[in-house]
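Action item from last week, closing it out:
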Amino acid sequence: MTFSEFMRVSTIEQATIDRFAGQVPAEVVDMWRVHGAGYAGDFYFRVVDPARAALMLDGVVGLPDNSTVLFTTGLGDVIFHVNGTFLVIKFRFGVIDLVPVGTSFGDLVAMMERPENRGPVFEWDPYPTVVATHREGAPSFEQCYGFVPLLALGGPAREENLALVGLYEHIALIVQLAGVPQLRGFLPSGPPESAGGKAHQPHS
């Protein structure tokens, strides 16, 4: 299963696909071959070239061996796969959320495609308001909106504090000033009402 709407930015070279194919589910390989790198759906999620992402994150954040970066987001999050598990690094909060064990790639894509998951699962507020009101709209492919000043330095999580920044440069700055993100727990699988009423509390 892949995204129902997609806008390609570039192809992913066969050599790159061959390099990472043994580390990811077959559906991911199909996504790279069919879609390449680009914007999924409403442009919040981006399928990245895993070789490019590995290069840009090398020396910035130490991903486990056999890790493969699959997606980034308009808020500078990174979604990656390692040894059968999907994880979401939310650099702005300094946390890593595990996608529930047993979640297939198709399940993950379905989770990402549901608009009602943006807030409780992916904690994207106040991103939509900023995109709607900012003259430049959605960030370009290797840009994101970042909080200035950083949340880790006491900056408030308000829309007026979001600025367009380089994706990988912003990640490097966060890690340099606030340290490497730490494991927080499991990513909720949906809004509170579909997760037994247990709401996921974002950091502020």
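Closing note: The helical segments are 14-20, 26-35, 50-57, 105-113, 127-133, 167-178.
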